[in-house]
Design goal:
The complex is a heterohexamer of chains A (89), B (933), C (110), D (122), E (505) and F (162).
Chain C lengths: L2 H27 L3 H4 L1 H25 L6 H27 L15
Helix pairs in contact in C: 1-3, 3-4
Chain D lengths: L1 H19 L4 H21 L20 H32 L14 H10 L1
Helix pairs in contact in D: 1-2, 2-3
Chain F lengths: L9 H14 L5 H18 L14 H25 L7 E6 L5 H13 L3 E6 L5 E6 L5 H19 L2
Helix pairs in contact in F: 1-2, 4-5
Classes of the chains: A mainly alpha (89), B mainly alpha (933), C mainly alpha (110), D mainly alpha (122), E mainly alpha (505), F mainly alpha (162).
Bound molecules: sodium ion (2 copies).
GO molecular function, one term (chain A): sodium:proton antiporter activity
Subcellular location (chain A): Cell membrane
Membrane topology (chain A): Multi-pass membrane protein
Chain lengths: 89, 933, 110, 122, 505, 162
Amino acid sequence: MMTAALYITIGMVTLAAVLNVCRLIKGPDAPDRVLALDTLYVNAIALIILLGLVLGTRLYLEAALLIAVMGFVGTVAMGKYLKRGSVIE
Amino acid sequence: MSLPLVVFLPFLGALAAPLFALGGRTAIAIASSVPALIALAVLFPFWETLANGDVVVQSYEWLPTLGLSFSFRLDGLSLLFALLILLIGLLVILYSRYYLKSHENVGKFYALLLCFMGSMLGIVMASNLLLMMIFWELTSLTSFLLISFWTHKQGARRGARMALAVTGGGGLALLAGILIIGNIVGSFELDAVLAAGDQIKAHAMYPVALTLVLLGAFTKSAQFPFHFWLPHAMEAPTPISAYLHSATMVKAGVFLLARLYPALAGTEMWFYMVSFTGMATLLLGAYVAMLKHDLKGLLAYSTVSNLGLITLLFGMGTKLAAIAALFHVINHATFKASLFMAAGIVDHETGTRDMRRINGLWRYMPHTATLAMVAASSMAGVPLLNGFLSKEMFFAESLALNLPGLWGWLPPIVAILAGIFAVAYSARFVHDVFFNGKPVDLPIYPPHEPPRYMKIPVEILVFACIMVGVFPTISVGPLIYAAASATLGEAVPDYELAVFHGFNLPLMMSLIAFFGGLLMYSQRQRFFDFHARFREIDEKAVFEAVVARCVNLANRFTGKIESGSLQRYAMLLVVAVIAMAFLPLTNLGLYIGASGLTPVDWPTAIAAGTLIVSAIITAVMHRERFFALVMLSVVGLVVSLGFARFSAPDLAMTQLSVEVVTIVLLMLALYYMPSWTPLETTTPRRIRDIAIALTAGIGMTLVTLAMLTRPFSSISSFFLEHSKPHGGGTNVVNVILVDFRGFDTLGEISVLAIAALGIYAMLKNTALTPPSGDGQGHPWTRDAHPMMLAQIARPMLPLALMVSVYIFLRGHNMPGGGFIAGLITSVALILQYIASGMVWTEERISFRYHNVIGLGLLFATVCGAGSLVFGYPFLTSTFGHITWPVVGEFEVASAMVFDLGVYLTVIGATLLALVSIGRLSPHSAIKSKKEPV
Amino acid sequence: MSLISEYLVSALLLLGGAFTLIGALGLLRLPDFYTRLHAPTKATTLGVGAIMLSSVIYFSNHDQQLGFSETLITVFLFLTAPVSANILAKAAMHIGVKPVRGTRGRPWEQ
Amino acid sequence: MELMFALVIGTLTATGVYLLLRARTFPVVVGLTLLSYGVNLFLFSTGRLVTGQQPIIGSAEHYTDPLPQALVLTAIVIGFAMTAFVVVLSLRSLADHDDDHVDGRRDEPPLREIDETEANGQ
Amino acid sequence: MNDWLLAPILIPLLGAIVQAFMGYAPISLRRTLALATTVLILVSAIVLLILANDGSYRIYAFGNWQPPFGIVLVLDRLAALMLVVTAVLGLLSHIYAVGGADEGNRQFHGLFLFQLMGLNIAFLTGDLFNLFVAFEVLLIASYGLLMHGGGTARTVPGLHYVVLNLVGSAIFLISVGMIYSVTGTLNMADLALAVRGLSGADLEIVRAGGLMLLVVFGLKAAILPLCFWLPKAYAKATAPVAALFAVMTKVGTYAILRVYLLVFGDNAGPLANLGMDWLFPLALITLAMGVIGALGAGSLKNLVAWQVIISVGTLLAPVALGSEAGLSAALFYLLSTTFTVGGLFLVSDLVSSQRGSAADRIITAPKMRNRTFLSVLFLVGAVAAAGIPPLSGFFGKILILQSVQSGAEMGWLWSVLLIGSFLTVIAYSRAGSIVFWRTVDGHLERPARLNGRVSASAGALIALTVTLVVLAGPITRYTDATAAQLHNTAAYTAILQIPMVAEGN
Amino acid sequence: MLDRLTFPQPWLSVLLFTTWQFLSNGVSGASVVMGLVLAWLIPQITSGFWPERPVFVKAWRVPAYLLRLVQDIIVASFSVARLILSPRPPRPVFVAYPLSLEHPLAITILASTISLTPGTVSADVSDDQKTLLVHTLDADSAQEVIDAIHNRYEKPLMEMFQ
Ligand code: NA
Ligand code: NA
C-alpha cells in the first residue's frame, strides 16, 4: 500500500513541478518566475525525499537539506537583484 | 686544427674589433689585418702539397645525425679563392682606414668585414656541403648588414633588404639542392659528393637538385634574372662594394659552379642552363653598364656582365673553358677591385659619383687617374693586361663551342657584342671621369689626390693586373693549375697562359671589340637616346612595391582570417570537432548497443522533459537575460536531481551548491550589464548557428546512446574493493577524491585558488558604473538590506557552520566532504553579504581570504607530504580508530586533513571571487543610507 | 513496519503530495503575483512538511533509528519561506507589478 | 532511459553551442554553463545509468562505477572556477570597452536587416 | 620510486602558497622568494634530466596506489626535456619580470609559479584525466597572467582565449569520457594496452574520442584553424608572460607526442597513427598562415606572436609523419624555437620601452636608446627564428627537412618550409630595418633606461640559441634517444608492473 | 583563556546543540560531546555576526506560541487549498498593519508568522519599522485582518519580548 501511495505522491509532486515550470515560463513578471523557481526547489526537496523512500535509503537526505539552503539563498539573491540590482554591495 | 683556424680567426677578430675601435681607425685597421695575415701564414706551408694537386682535409665531428661536420678542405680551388679573399681583404682593410670618417662606427664596420671574410673563407674551405651552406648564408647576412652600414640612407636599407631577400632566398634553394645531393650520395662530405658525380647525374632527382643549386649560385652571382640586387648593393660603402660585390662574395656563386663541377657538370641540362644564363647576364650587364651615369652603377653592371662571362665559361662544360673561368675570376677581381677603389677615391674627393658632373679629373688627381685608366684598360681587354688574356681565352672557347646549326654563331656573336660593350663602358669610365671638359658643380671642389695610403691598395692591384698581363705563367700559372686540377677533379688538359697566341680568330674578335667599343662610345648619345625610349625600371622601387604589396596582402588576408571575432573562432572550433568525430560516428552503424535500452519511468521522463524544455527556453529566450538565468537555474536543479536519481548523491549536492553560487555570480555580473541582449545577428547567421548546434547536439546524443547501451568493465572494482579496507572510508567517491586520485583534487583546488587570485587581481583596478535603475527604468529601491532578511541571516551562519562540520565529518563515509561543506559555509557567508552588506560583513571578518586559500592549499600539501616522512609517496593516506571515553570509537584519517585543505580553499576562493565583484559596487565603499538592522 | 505506521506514512505522503500539487495549482491559477505568493508559502511548504514527516516515520520504523534530519529541513523551510516571500513581494512592488483588479489597498512604493 | 538521457545531453550540448556562438558575453557564459552541464552528465554517464547503486559501501548490493562520479566532481569544481573567471573577465571587458560584445566593440550600428527582422517580428 | 619526480610540482606549489600569504610583504621579499622557487625548479628539472638520460622510465605513484588505479607521474627523456625547457624559459622570464613587469598586482608571482606547476604536471603525468587537470591548472594561471598588467588592450584577446579554452576543456572531458566508456581506464599506459584489442563500435567510439582529443591538443598547440586567438593574445600580454607562453603551445605538441605515440601509436592496431593524416596538411597550412601573418604584422610583438604559429606548423609537420628522425628533429626545433620566441618577446618589449609612443610598432620613429644592443639581440633572435645559419633555428629546420626524404610529403614539407623561411626572412628584415634603422629626427616622449637585469635575461634567452648550436651534437644525441624511446611503447607500458613501496616500510 | 569558555549567545548554543543532535540521528555520547564542543565553538566564531541579542523575557511562552503556529499553519493551508480549488475568485486586500513591537527580531517573527498563517503574507516592513504591509488573499475588510493579527500573534509576542 505504501508503495502505491509513494508512487501516487511522486506523480503528484512531479505534476506540481511541471505546473510550476509552466508558471515559470509564463511569468509574466520576473518575481513570478523567481517564485515559481523557489517553489520548484521545494518540489525538488520533496522528490529527493521520495526517492529516498523508494530506494529505502537516507543517503539522499543531506541533498534535500542542501536544496533547502541553496534554494533559499538563490531566491533571496534573485529577489535582491530584482529590486536592488547589486546582490552584494 | 690549422684549416679551421684560418676560417675562425677572422670571427675572433670580429669579436675583438669593437675593442680596438676605441683606439681609433689606425688601431682597428691594424688589428683587423692580423687575422688575415696569420691566415696567410697558416696557408703558406700548404703550397707545396697543393701545387702537386693534392688535397688537405681536416675534419671534426659536429652533428653526425645530420651528416654535418667541421671539415675543411684545402685544394687549388679553395686556395685560389682564399688568397683572393685574404689579399684583397687586406687591401680593403687598409683602404677603409682612409675611406671611413672618424665619426663613423668603425668598430661595427671592421667587425662585419671580418665576419664576412671568415664566412667567405668558410665557403671556399668547407669540405662539408652543409657546413659550406652555413657560411654561404652567413655571407648573405653580413652582406645585408654591410650594405645597410649607413642605416640612415633609405637606399642602403632597401638595397640591403633586396640583397638579403635574393641571396638569402637563393640560399634556401641551394640548401634544398644540397640536401637532395646529400641524400643521393649519402654524405655531405665533399670527397664523397665529388666522387659520386655519375651517381648524381643518373639520379631521378638530378634535375631538381641541379636547378636548386643553380638557383643558389645564380642569385649569389647576380645572374640574370636575379642580377638586379647587385647594383643596388652599391649603396654600401665603396670598400665593401669592392670587396664583397665585385671581388669575393659574388664570386661565391661561380665558386660553387667550380666546386660542384665534377658532381654536376657535363650534362646537357647543365650546359643549357648555365651557359644561357651566363650569356644573358653577360649581355645584359654590359648593355646596362653603358647606360649608368653613376660611377659605381657602371662598375656594378660591368661586374654583372663579367660574372655572366665566368658563368658562361663554366657552362660551356669544356675543361679549357673552366680554366679560362678560373683565370678570369682572378683577373676580374683585381681590375674590378682596383676600379672600385678608384671610384671610391673619386667619390671621396668629389662628393659625387655622377659622371655627368665629374669631368676632367686628370687635372686634379693624375696619379689616381693613371691607376684607374690601367685598370679600366684591363677591363676593356687591352693587351698586356690581365683582362685581355682571359677574354682572349673566352673568345677562343666561344668559337670552340659546337652548337647545332645556326646556333653555332650565337656564342661568338654574343662574345663580340659583350666585348664591344665592355670597351665602350671602360672608355666611358676613363673619358667621362678624367677628361671630357671641366667638372660641373661638385660638392667638394677642388678635388685633389687622396691620402698616400689610400692609393697603395689600388697601386698593388693595378700592379697585379700588369704583372699577370705580362707574365701570366710566372705570376698565376701554378695557382691556376692547382685550381684547375681541383676543379676538374681529373687530369688538367694542356693549355697556355700566353700573352700572345699569334694572329688568330680570337685576336680578330678582340680587335673588333676594341674598335667597335670605341665607336660605340663615340656614338653614345644615340645609344642613350635609343635607350631613353624604354621605360626605366627601378628594381628597388619594384622590389619595395612587391614587398609592400605582399605585406599589404598578408595584412589584409590576416585581418580577414584573424578577424578578432570570437564567434568565428568558436564556430571553427565546434565545426572542427564535429568534422573530426563525424566519420567514426557514422561508422558506428547501430547506435543501440548490446545491453539495449532500459525502461523509462514517468517522473524521470518528465524531469528530463522539463530539463530539455528549460534548456531550449534558455537558449531561445537568452536575450531576456534574467529569464535565461532563471531557466538556467531550473536546468541546474534538474541536473542535480538527475545525479541523485542515478546513484550519485555527492554529485547532486556538489552540482546544486555550485549552481547556486554560479547563479549569484552571474547576477553580480548582470548588475553591470545590459539586462537585454540586442538582436544583432542576421537570420542566415542564426540559422547557420542553429544548424551547427543541432549537429553537435545530435552527435552527442548518438554518442551517448551508443555508449550507454554497451556493456563495459572498468578499473573501478579496485576502488570499491579497497575503499574501506585501505582507504578507510565507505564513500568510495570521496575516497577516490582524497586518496586514490587525491592528486587530481590537489590540482582542482589549485585551479580554484588560482581562479580566485586571478579574479581578485583582475578586478583590482576595475571601475564599472552601475546602472541607476533596472532594465525597465525603475530606480533601485532604497532598502538595501531588508530587515527580515537580515534577521533570518543572523542564525543562519552558525547553523550553516554546524551543518558544514556535519557534512565535512561524514564525507569520508557518507555523501558529503570538504568541498560541499566548504560551499555551505561559503553560501552562509554570502548570505551575510547579501543580507547585511559588504561593509557590515567585512567588519566582522578578521582574516583575508587570500590567507584562507593559502592555508587550505598548505593543509592539503602538507598532509600529502606527511607520508614522505615515513618513506611513502606523496598523498599516501593512513587512518586509525581511536576510542575515547564517552565519545566512543571514532575514525581518524589523514585524508581528513587533506579534505580540510579542500574545505578552506573552497571557502577562500569562492568568497574572494564573489567579494571581489561585490567590491565593485559603489555602495560597498560608502555606508548605505540605511544601516543594516 | 507496523500496519499503523504504514497507514500513517501513506496518508502523510498522499496529503503531502496533494498539498504540493495544490500549491502548484494555486501558483498557476491565482490571478496576480500577490495572490500567487500565498500558494507556495503555505501549501507547498506544508506539503513537503508532510512528506518529510512520512519519511521520519518510515525510517524510524525501518532502521530502528529516529530520523530527525527531515525535521530540520522542514523547520528550515518554515523559517525561510516567509523571508523569501517578503523579498519577492518587495521586488514585485519595486517593479510595479499591478495587483489584480478589485484588490483593496495598494502596494507600497519601494 | 538511455535514449532519454542521451536526448538530454544532446539538448544541453545544442543549446550550449548555440549560445556560445552569440555575440554578447552574457549568453556566451550561459552557453558555456549549459555545455558544461551536458559534459558533466556525459562524463557521469560513462559509468552507465543505474538506480539506487550509490557507491557508498554498505548502502546497496551493487555499486555503480564511482570513478566517473569522482571525475565529474573534479570537473564541476574546475568548471565553476573557470566560469567565475570568465564572468569576471567579461565584466572587465565591459569596464574596458563600455560594451558587452564579445569582441569588445562599441556603438556599432546594428545591421540593417536586423532592423527589418525586428520590425517584422513585432 | 624517486621523490625527485615530485619536486618540479611541489616546489612551485609551495612557492605559490607562500606568495598567497604574502599579500602585504614588501615586494623585494616576494621577488626573492619567488625567484628562489624558480631556481629550485630549474635545479630539480636538471636533476630529472640527468636521471632520465639513462633511458629508463621512472614512475611516482601518488598515494602508493599501483597504476592504473592511482595517478602516476612518469619520467622519461621527453618529459625531462620539456621540464628543463620550461624551467629555463621560466627562470629567465621570471628574472625579466622582476625587473618591473611584476608590479601592478600582488598575485603575479603566485600565478607565475602556479603556471609552472601546471606545466610541470602536464609534462610528468601518466594519467589522461590528470592531464586534463594539469591543463586546467596551467590554463587558469595563464588566464590570470594574461590579464596581468592592466590596460584595456588585452581584455578582448584574453576573453577569446579563455572562452575558446573553456570549450576546449569541455571537448577534452567529452573525449576522456568516450575513451573511458569503452576502455574503463585512464592511465595512459593501460589505455595503450586497452586500445589495441578494440573492434566494432567500441573502436569507433574510441576513434571519435581520440580525434576529438586531437582537436583539443590542436587548440592548445594553436594549429589552424584553431590558432586565431593566439596572435593577439600573445602580442598583448605582458612581455615576460608572453615569453613564458612560448612554451604553452608546446604543451599541446607535447600532449600530441605523448598520447598519440603511446596510445594511438604504431601498435594501436586499427587506431594506429590516428589523426596524423589530418595533422600533416594542417601543420603545413598553419605554417603558411603563420608566415603570412608574420609578413603582415604591424608590430614586433605581433610578428613574434605569428612566429609562434610558424613554429607550431614547423613542429607538428614532422610529428605528424612520426618517423624517429622527424621526432628528433622536431624536438631539437622545439628547443630552439621556444627559447628564440621567448627571447624575441622580451626583446620586443625592450625595444618598445625605448621607442616612446611608437612602442614596438613597425613604423618610423625617433631613434631609440640602446639601439646597438637591442638591434644585435633582435638580429640574433630573428636569424634564429627565421632559420638562417648559423643559429639553432637553421639546424632545427635542416633536421626536419632531412627527416623526410621521399614521397609527396617531402615535396610539400620542403616547399612550404623553405618558401616559408624565405618570406620570414623578408618579414624580419623589413621589420628590423624599419624599427631599428628608419628613424626620424625628434625626441622620445618617454625616455626610459634599460635595466641591467631585464636586459641580461632577454640577452640570455637569445644567447641560448647560440648555445644550442654549440651543443648541437649532445643535444641531437639526446633527442635521437628521446625519439627512439617514444617509439618503444612497450617500455612505457611496462611501468604498470613497477612495484609500489612495500607495507611497513 | 578561561573567560573564553563562556557561551556568548546561550540561546544560539542551545539551538546549535539541539540541531547537532538532530543531525547526528540520535543522541549518543559522541554526539553530546561533539554537540557541546560545537555549541561552544561556533558562537565564538560567529558572535560578531549577531550583534543584537534577542532577550526572551518569558521563554516558557514560546512552546505555546509554536503550537498555535503549527495549528494555524495546517488550518491556513487547508483554507488556501480550498480557495485555490474553488472557482470563486479571491478578494485580496493590502493591509497596512500598525506595529506595536519594536525589536527587529520580534517584528520578523511576527511577519513570518503572518506569512505562514491563513491567507496573509507580509509584503513589507516600513522604513521606520512602525508599519507592516500585509497582503491578504481573501478578506472582508482590512480591520478584520488587523484585529486578528493583533490578538492572535502580536500580543503573545509582546509578552515574550517585553
Ligand atoms: Na663625366
Ligand atoms: Na499568513
